[in-house]
């Protein structure tokens, strides 16, 4: 009997929908940015489906939703750029006031870090928000390397950030695990040759994460340390 983590040395985590439920703060910032353009404001359940492809795509999706609520404005680049700039400003002002850690996250990171695993963070969120958010939950010290959606030339589902983390930390892909909530995490993990672990509670564009065929589907991060395999 082996543990799911036998032979693994590096564990890469997604952020939004995996470690933190960030949709309340994303909804507030998107809502403030849309309201500043005189547009309709979406609810959390709408925004939940728009997260996962980075902030520019989130704002694009929010804008097309808001414009569809009214016939008075049509999309244009200037409106998009203004709304995106406002979103960044509003989100930077309050990136974690309403954000919560999912159950079991901090004890799991503590235990994995204590057991000697290298931990990395690979999010599609703009990199500038990573530190302030991790800091407000006391998580910074656990991660050897953090990458945002704008850190490299490609973001998830491209495997580039995963390859970069493995190479930088000197770990072969077969000893790496990608833990995430969305099909982009699973696609990037598979393409990089990592073992993929999915969590079902986050944001996956309204689709069950099982459809992405993760190697492991867990209920919470605490199961990373307790899941056994027969082989
Ligand atoms: O789309 C985002 O901004 C966040 O996505 P993440 O799930 O990769 O952290
Ligand atoms: Mg995610």
From TrEMBL:
PANTHER family: PHOSPHOGLYCOLATE PHOSPHATASE (PTHR43434)
Record's keyword annotation contains Amino-acid biosynthesis: no
Active-site residues, Swiss-Prot/TrEMBL: 14 (nucleophile)
Keywords, sorted A to Z: Carbohydrate metabolism, Hydrolase, Magnesium, Metal-binding
Organism the protein comes from: Halomonas dongshanensis
Protein name stated in the entry: Phosphoglycolate phosphatase
Superkingdom of origin organism: Bacteria
Cofactor(s) the protein requires to work: Mg(2+)
Signal peptide residues on this chain, from the entry's feature table: none
InterPro entries: HAD-like_hydrolase_sf, HAD-like_sf, HAD-SF_hydro_IA, HAD_sf, PGP-like_dom2, PGPase_prok
Pfam families membership: Hydrolase
Family label: Belongs to the HAD-like hydrolase superfamily. CbbY/CbbZ/Gph/YieH family.
Coiled-coil stretches noted in the UniProt entry, renumbered to this chain: none
Pathway: Organic acid metabolism; glycolate biosynthesis; glycolate from 2-phosphoglycolate: step 1/1
Catalyzed reaction equations: 2-phosphoglycolate + H2O = glycolate + phosphate
One function term, GO molecular function aspect: phosphoglycolate phosphatase activity
Function: Specifically catalyzes the dephosphorylation of 2-phosphoglycolate. Is involved in the dissimilation of the intracellular 2-phosphoglycolate formed during the DNA repair of 3'-phosphoglycolate ends, a major class of DNA lesions induced by oxidative stress.
The EC number(s) this enzyme carries: 3.1.3.18
Annotated binding of Mg(2+), by residue: 14, 16, 181
Keyword field contains Metal-binding: yes
